[in-house]
Amino acid sequence: MDEVFGSPVLKVEQPRRGPFAKSRYKILDGDGTVLAVAAPADAHGRAQMRGVVPGKSNLDARAVLLTTPDGDPLLVVDKQQGREYTEILTPQEEAIGSFVTERVGRRYVVYDGDGSLIGAVTVDVPRNNFELFDTDENKVAHVRKKWAGLATHLLTTADKYAVEIFDPVPEPLRTMAVTMAIVMDMNLHESKEIT
N or C, which end of the chain has less CB nearby within 10 Å? Predict the structure, then answer.
């Protein structure tokens, strides 16, 4: 992943669409170059959507496939039903790691593909700042959700995140840092409720 997501500063953007057009993202470097795109995974991707009818982010399951702008598969973000478990997979569906809820909307623990604890994510009260720490409590990444205004928040899926990674961060923790904005958006912001 380092060759694609090597920049310590990334942007994750969700296109401006209606409230039911969810789970689409662009990952850009600090200069605005598109590094990857994410769209709902289906039978033609490497993972299948588990949810049949879109619903609130705390209820339905969904998966997104990250690809290069040319369409080469990179990762799958597979959010299980509820807010308890989101797995990051290779395109061949091998586990890279997972985010597991410890306190809904406040703290998530991060595991590698073998199930070993590698870090934790803390979330502020408005759910706009997410900090990733390693097991030695060193801050390795910070994601900030940018406020786009009430109308945009309520009427569209448009969200923008700034990602800062404090390199060097070893794999797979760095990949987890890159995907953290998408995971937190899928778990906490896709329903577009004022909470």
Answer: C
Helical H runs in 5-164? 150-155
Query: Token pair 């995907």 is at which residue?
Result: 179
Is the full-model pTM beyond 0.85?
Answer: no
The Cα–Cα gap between 7 and 132 comes to 17
Cβ-based burial of 170 (10 A; exposed 0-12, middle 13-18, buried ≥19): exposed
For the segment(s) 9-189, the CATH number from 3.40.50.12780, 3.40.50.720, 1.10.101.10, 2.40.160.200 is 2.40.160.200
Contact 132, 177 (CB under 8 A): yes
Rounded CA gap, 161 and 56, in Å? Answer: 20
Identify which of 74, 163, 174 has the alpha carbon closest to the alpha carbon of residue 118: 174
β-strand partners of 85: 100
The residues of the chain scoring below 70 in pLDDT are 1-2, 16-22, 42-59, 147-158, 189-195
Q: Is 110 exposed, middle or buried (0-12, 13-18, 19+ CB in 10 A)?
A: buried
Q: Apex CA 49: angle with CA 47 and CA 52, to 5°?
A: 160
Q: Alpha helices of 43-189 — where are they, by DSSP H?
A: 150-155, 173-184
In the chain, the largest separation of any two C-alpha atoms, in whole Å, equals 42
Cα gap 152→104, rounded to integer Å: 25
Domain ranges for the chain = 9-189
